[in-house]
Each structure stands twice: as C-alpha cells, then as structure tokens.
Design a protein that fits this description.
Layout (H helix, E strand, L loop, with lengths): L30 H6 L4 H52 L4 H53 L5 H9 L2 H40 L1 H9 L4 H43 L4 H14 L4 H16 L1 H30 L4 H15 L1 H19 L25 H23 L1
C-alpha cells in the first residue's frame, strides 16, 4: 500500500528542488520554428500569381494599343470578302489572282476618284459663288433689318467693326492652330485607308493560300466546316453590299427628283452624294448626306432648304422602317428585327465599324449555325397560324357582341309586352 500521512491521505512525492514533475511528453525539437516557417509552395504560388497578373496587364495594354489595327484588319477582311466573287470569276478565266485583285481595286479607285472630283468641282464652284454674292446678300439682310427695326446700319461700319474686333483676331488664331489638327486627322485617315487597302488586297489575292493555311492545322472534318463558313461569309457579305448599293440607287433617284423639281444646281452630283454617303457611312452618314444639299438649296432660297430638310427626314424614316428591312431580309436572309438589332449592337460594341459589319457578320453566323440546328415538322394546329381553336370559345369582342344582342332582344321583348 502507498504510504499515508497523519490525516490518512496519500503522501505526495516532490522533487528535491520543489519543482513539479512533468505531466506530459516533452515538446519536439524545433516545433516553434516549424510553426513559424512559411510553406515551401507559397513563394512559388505568389510569384506565379504576380506573373499572371503582369502578363494579363501587358496583354490588355497591347490590345488597347492595337485595337485600331485590329479594326482596320476586320474592315479589310469584309472588304476582301465583298470583292471575292469578282476576283474568283476573273481568276477562273485564267487570270492571276493578284492581277485580278489589282484590276478590281483599280476600278474602285477610278470610280471613287471620279466621284470626289465631281464633288470637289461642285463645292469649289459653290464656294466661289457664295463668296462673290456675299456682299449682295449682306446688303439685303441689312436693308431688311433697317426696314423692320428702323435702324441705320451700313455694311462699311459692320465690316470695320468685324476687322477691328478681338473676336475675329482670336478666331483667326484658333483657326491657324486648328489647321494643324485637321491636317493631322487627314493624314491619319489617309494612312488608315492605305492600311485597309493593303490588307484587303492581300486577303483577296492570297485567299486560297490563306484558306490552305487555316485548313492545314485542322482535321479533315473541321476543314469542311471552315470552307463552308468561308463560302457563307462571301455570299452574305456580297448580298449585304448589293442591298446597300440598291438602297443607294433608290435614295439617289428620289433625291434627284426632288432637287431637280426645286431647280437646285448640281442635282445629279448631289443625288449621288446623298445615295453613297447615307448608305456606306454608318451612324452619321445620313446627316452628312443631307447637310450638303440643304446648304446648296439655301443659296437658292431658304424655303427650298426647308423642303430638302423635310424630305430627307421623311425619306430616312421610310428607308429605316420599310425599305431597308425588306431589302436586307431578302438579300442577306435575316429577319428585319434581327438586322436592326444587330446594327444597334454593333454600334454599341465597335462604333461605326460595328454598324458597318454587323449585318453580314450576323447573317454569316446565322446561316452557319442553321446547319447544326435540328428542325422538326410543325403540327397542323390552328394556333400556329394565329387562329383560335374551337375549344377555346369565342373571343372577347364576339362575346361582347352577343351580350349586347341579348340585351337588345330583352329590351325589344319588354317593349312588345308593355304595348
């Protein structure tokens, strides 16, 4: 038995120094150091995360820097698809694709140069005419003001006041600074047109080589799908340009009839301007197209300018809601609502470029995906055609008519009984 003290309790053994004996296992060597040490995988994970963030930021910066070039390439690709039928037809007759592409571009260049030459000569003539007739026009305005408001204005006093005014001096200084900005924008626009033309030429001239390069990295089953998508894109883009050209012709003829009836000078050139600019420059093309005829008509009579404005607005509504949806649905084979929505979406995403390429892109995607959508026969149900079934009963209008007939019949019966 264990020894006990005087109170009968078990005696407690203590160490010689009075310290309590250890009650648990001794701590492992270096335990505190291991708990504070960083895991081996954490530095590598942090370095990898920082590297990924850096690569993402670099890619985002490069994308923002190259977005202009990418948009130019996109426009060039659709332009190459548009001229692909003409180039392929000439190449099928034995002509080299490079020469055929050059001839197509040369023809387009001749047409554009002739159009802008006629337009420039018209503008130059109108500007000279306006400058020569400005004193007489100013005299007529001054006479009207003097007669109406009983003032004593003279053209010489107005000219001297303008020449010695600070406003004219500041305007001249700002105009001199703005000339440099305009020159820079013009040079930038010319460089962009040159870039689009070069890429379009290469895409059209080396079309077969480009298709072979794409198909060489794909299995045979995918190659057929890529070639089919390419053909669909060519057909839809050509149909879209055909519809725009047809609408440009209709718009030009309609505006020519109006301008010729009003006696506006340069009516044929103005009609061509309205047709081309309103159809092939998205978003702001309509306003640019209508501004020039209004300006020329204003030189003849302000009332004629008002008539031109009214006609432009009315015709634009007719074109947007009646002519364009029907032509687009027939040539590009998409629903008018889809065409309208695609233009809005393209404008929101890519601006004017998106509005220009939205319809052919959506038409190509719709035709390509249509081959992979399984379709079923529709049941012969009257509700499919918008007719109500027999078991559904008459409509609200029919029930109202029947109720009114019953009321009238009761009223007539009560009258006969009282009589």
């Amino acid at each position: 038995m264990a020894p006990t003290d005087e109170t009968g309790q078990v005696a407690r053994h203590t160490s010689p120094l009075g310290a309590k004996p250890p009650t648990g296992p001794p701590p492992a060597d270096g335990g505190a150091e291991q708990g504070a040490r960083m895991p081996r995988w954490l530095p590598r994970a942090m370095v990898l995360a920082l590297a990924l963030i850096g690569v993402f930021q670099l890619g985002l910066w490069a994308f923002h820097q190259l977005i202009g070039l990418l948009l130019n390439i996109l426009i060039a690709f659709f332009l190459a698809l548009a001229i692909e039928p003409a180039v392929s037809r000439m190449a099928a007759r034995g002509m080299r694709r490079g020469l055929a592409t050059f001839l197509v571009f040369f023809g387009l260049l001749i047409v554009a140069a002739g159009f802008f030459t006629l337009l420039g000569s018209m503008l130059a003539g109108q500007i000279i005419k306006m400058i020569e007739g400005f004193p007489d026009y100013l005299d007529s305005v001054i006479n009207w003001i003097n007669t109406t408001f009983h003032t004593d204005l003279r053209r010489v006093d107005i000219q001297e006041g303008l020449l010695h005014s600070d406003w004219l001096r500041k305007y001249a200084q700002n105009s001199a600074a703005g000339v440099l900005d305009v020159s820079t924008q013009v040079l930038g626009g010319l460089f962009r047109l040159l870039t689009i033309a070069l890429f379009s030429f290469y895409f059209a001239a080396d079309g077969p080589r480009l298709r072979r390069a794409l198909c060489s990295v794909l299995p045979p089953a995918r190659q057929a799908e890529v070639l089919r998508a390419w053909e669909i894109a060519v057909d839809k883009t050509g149909g879209y340009l055909y519809s725009r050209g047809l609408m440009a012709l209709i718009s030009g003829v309609a505006h020519y009839v109006l301008l010729e009836a009003l006696g506006i000078p340069y009516a044929p050139v103005l009609a061509v301007w309205v047709g081309v600019v309103s159809q092939f420059i998205p978003t702001i093309g309509t306003y640019l197209a209508g501004a020039l005829p209004m300006l020329i008509a204003f030189t003849v009579s302000p009332l004629y300018a008002l008539w031109v404005l009214i006609f432009v607005v009315v015709y634009q509504q007719f074109e947007n809601y009646m002519l364009q949806p029907k032509l687009t649905s027939k040539t590009v084979d998409i629903h008018p609502a889809v065409a309208f929505g695609s233009v809005i979406a393209g404008t929101a995403l890519l601006g004017a470029v998106g509005a220009l390429v939205a319809i052919p892109a959506v038409a190509t995607l719709q035709a390509f995906l249509g081959a992979y959508v399984k379709r079923y026969d529709v049941t012969d149900d009257p509700r499919v055609h918008g007719h109500r079934g027999r078991g559904e009963g008459p409509g609200p209008l029919t029930r109202a008519r029947r109720l009114w007939g019953r009321v009238r019949h009761r009223q007539d019966g009560s009258r006969d009984a009282s009589g």
